[in-house]
Amino acid sequence: MSFPKAKLQRFNEVQGCTPSPADYNVSLKNHAGLATIPKSERFTDLRSPASSDHSFVSNGHAPSFKTPNPPRKQKVGAPNSNRKTKPVDLFAITDDAEALKEKIVECNNKDLFIQELTEHVEELKQDLNDLQSVISKLTKRNSSLELNVEKLSDDHSKTLTELTKKRELEVVLVKKKALEVSGKVDEVKNKFVALKEESVEELSNLLKCIGVLQNLLDLLRKNTQMIIAEQTEELILKNKQIYEFEKSISQLKALHLQEIQTLESDMLKTVSNMHNIIDNEKENGEKRVNEVTNAKEQEIGTLKEKFDKERLKLIEDYEMKIQQMKENFKEATILTEIQTREKCETIESSWKAKVEEVQLEADAILKECQAIAEYNIIQSEIEKNKVSYELTEEKKKVEELRAENLEMKSSCAVAETKRKEIETQLSNVIIELNTIREELGKEITECKENVRAATKDKNLYELTVQKTHKTVEALKRRLMKSDQDVEQLKAELEATEESKLEVEGKCNQLMHELEIVTDLCDIIEEQNKMTVDLAEQKVLQLKEELCNKIDDFKSKSKAEIKLKEDELNKVKKDLSEARELLHDQNILNCKAQEWISLSQDEIKQCEVLEKKLLASEDSRHNLLKENSKLKTVIELMQASENDLLKQISDLKNCEPEPVPLPGTDDDLKEKYGKLLEQLESVEKDNAQLRMQVAEQNALIGPFRDNLKSYEMEYNILMNEKEHAEKEAHEMGLKYVEILGHQNLKQKIKHLVDLKKKNAILTEEKQKLEVKLRNQARTIENLKSQVSTPKKSSKKDKENLDHSSGRIESPGPLRDRN
């Protein structure tokens, strides 16, 4: 095949379309896009170097090379044999050495550049391998994390089941203990109610006895008050009578003194007149005396005789009257004494009978009270011993309950510590997940940076490939004119095309792998985020559920502990109330004994007072007798004084010359002195009686105060009793409200409610278990999805028409690769 002579084109003449390799200084800032060669230029046939300045790419088949256009013929005389045998001179003679040197330098530079490209491709392969190893490590780590999460969830479910079982067992034990404690409390309550009823009966009996004693005391008090009132009235009347009598005596004394003074004055006047008359008439009378003496002596003798007779008569009459008065007085005194004795005897007999009856009743009541008190004391001591024994047993039970309560508290504390440990483990797991998330984020950022660096290197590689295309095209243009160079160029072009195709395929594979890796990274990031979020949500849900369950268990345990503490406190209160009631009962028994002793003392004092009253009545009767005697004596004295006054007036009227009566004044003075002595004695007796009355009032005063204080204490005790009964009734109502199952129907209702609550709790538990199973399934599905990610089955549409066969043509580029 003959080729026409082509136009020679020297290297010096060719404008540098490709700079020297030393001038390659690609700016890294301007990032080129992806190297996508258009299909129209890639799969077109090779053009002639004159018609096309663009690069050509083989489609995998044998390269079809078109001959260039035949150039014009230069000289006619030139032989054709030389053209056929001799090759066309590519270089001028002068420029051979320089051209060869430049070509050698270019070839060396190209070899170096190709080596750099191969090294860069190997580095990219290593980076891809590193990325694949990192992805495998991440998948392994993700699988290990999922296994850890599964283990944690299994441990968590196991711990939850164990805790629920333990709590259920503890709740069952606590319920059993609560039922036992409630039974014991019911027994204690029944015993307490029985003791309370017995104590109330005993208190009612004691109060009845006390009421009877108080009624008796009130009767005695009323009787004594009546007697004292009567005596006080009688004393007041006597005092009034004595005061009137004293007034009358003082008036009589005054009148008597006035009369005596008038009599004395009259006597003195008469005496003075008589002396004057006698003195005046002595002289006249001496004469007449001698005359009249004889006559007068006779008359005086007759008058003396008459006077003696009359005096004797008067004395006899007065003596008879006095004797009659004495007899009458004696008879009256005897009658009054007999009447008073009869009255006193009747009163004494009636009072003695009453006192004996009261004493008999009091003795019987005292005996009954003593017997009842002794029986109550014995029963109270027996019950006290029983209650003390029961109290010791209940103290032991309370101590056992306290120990159980402490055990419950310790178990609660252990559960709280376990909960805290679980919370710490959950927090540690969350922290580990966050750290793993941060590490994955860092690794993903590193992978992204590596991908960015790979894209940068790819862009640089594309630029270098483009520049190699340009250099190859320039070389093709230069070497197209020679046959050998054309063959070499063909081979080199084929090799370069093959290498180009390989590099493009590798680039496409790398891009596809990069896309897959980026998609996988995005999917892994999303899946990691989803898994982390789901794990966090599940952990938070589990934490909330655990916290809620623990709070529920805490609240239930606290409520049960509070109920038990309240029940224990109520039992303690009941025991303390029982103790207080026993103590109050003992105090009441002691007070009853004291009251009985006081009533006995008061009865004795009343007997003493009755004796004193009887003695005072006797003395009063004696005083009345003496007073009546004095009255009679005073009346007699008044009568005698009146008689004497009458006699004096008669004598004055009868006799012109008064004759003094011998012995009348002395008798009167003696009688008057006696009367004064009697008055003084009567006043002394009255003062003594007043002193006795004051002493009796002083003796009765503290008894009155004691009675008032007893009444006050009785009212206070009755108020306390009513208050205690109200409190006991309220406590009983509260116990009924709290326990709520006194009757069988209430017990059945309570059991039905408990069964309903238990069924509701079991349903909730089953629902929670179903939720946990569903969550475990979702976790397993997510783990399976994370462990086996879907690979994208995308194929490069650009390489669909390329055949995998390669033409193993020798060439420098092929050998280099």
UniProtKB/TrEMBL annotation:
GO terms for molecular function: hyaluronic acid binding. InterPro entries: HMMR_C, IHABP. One of its GO terms (cellular component) is spindle. The keyword Cytoplasm applies. Keywords: Coiled coil, Cytoplasm, Cytoskeleton. It holds the Pfam family HMMR_C. Residues 678-796 form the Hyaluronan-mediated motility receptor C-terminal domain. The keyword Cytoplasm applies. Its main location: cytoplasm. Residues 795-805 have a biased composition (Basic and acidic residues). Residues 49-58, 779-790 have a biased composition (Polar residues). It is found in: Cytoplasm, Cytoskeleton, Spindle. Residues 114-155, 384-513, 554-581 form a coiled coil. Residues 45-87, 779-817 are annotated as: Disordered. This is Hyaluronan-mediated motility receptor C-terminal domain-containing protein. The lineage of its organism: Eukaryota, Metazoa, Ecdysozoa, Arthropoda, Hexapoda.
